Amino acid sequence: MSDTIAQKVEAIWRDVLTVPSGQDDATFFELGGNSVSAVRLVSRIEEELAVWIDVGDMFEDPDLAELIRTVIAKADEASAA
């Protein structure tokens, strides 16, 4: 399940931030991320994965790998409840 979540989060990240070739490891801010794109990312994750994360998470840990870890952790919390 976590692989599927990771793939979906990556697809949303690439779509919202329009990640150019060769910038796979770029952070949210390096890709031009701002408060509007953070809200778009969080909204898409909520809509497509039914996982709620805080917009502030994007600013605390602004890279794709950390976002994936956060979403997987939140999904695990939700399924355990």
UniProtKB/TrEMBL annotation:
<dbReference type="InterPro" id="IPR020806">
    <property type="entry name" value="PKS_PP-bd"/>
</dbReference>
<dbReference type="GO" id="GO:0047527">
    <property type="term" value="F:2,3-dihydroxybenzoate-serine ligase activity"/>
</dbReference>
<feature type="domain" description="Carrier">
    <location>
        <begin position="1"/>
        <end position="75"/>
    </location>
</feature>
<dbReference type="GO" id="GO:0009239">
    <property type="term" value="P:enterobactin biosynthetic process"/>
</dbReference>
<dbReference type="GO" id="GO:0009366">
    <property type="term" value="C:enterobactin synthetase complex"/>
</dbReference>
<dbReference type="InterPro" id="IPR006162">
    <property type="entry name" value="Ppantetheine_attach_site"/>
</dbReference>
<keyword id="KW-0596">Phosphopantetheine</keyword>
<keyword id="KW-0597">Phosphoprotein</keyword>
<dbReference type="InterPro" id="IPR036736">
    <property type="entry name" value="ACP-like_sf"/>
</dbReference>
<dbReference type="GO" id="GO:0005829">
    <property type="term" value="C:cytosol"/>
</dbReference>
<dbReference type="InterPro" id="IPR009081">
    <property type="entry name" value="PP-bd_ACP"/>
</dbReference>
<dbReference type="GO" id="GO:0043041">
    <property type="term" value="P:amino acid activation for nonribosomal peptide biosynthetic process"/>
</dbReference>
<protein>
    <recommendedName>
        <fullName>Carrier domain-containing protein</fullName>
    </recommendedName>
</protein>
<dbReference type="GO" id="GO:0031177">
    <property type="term" value="F:phosphopantetheine binding"/>
</dbReference>
<dbReference type="Pfam" id="PF00550">
    <property type="entry name" value="PP-binding"/>
</dbReference>
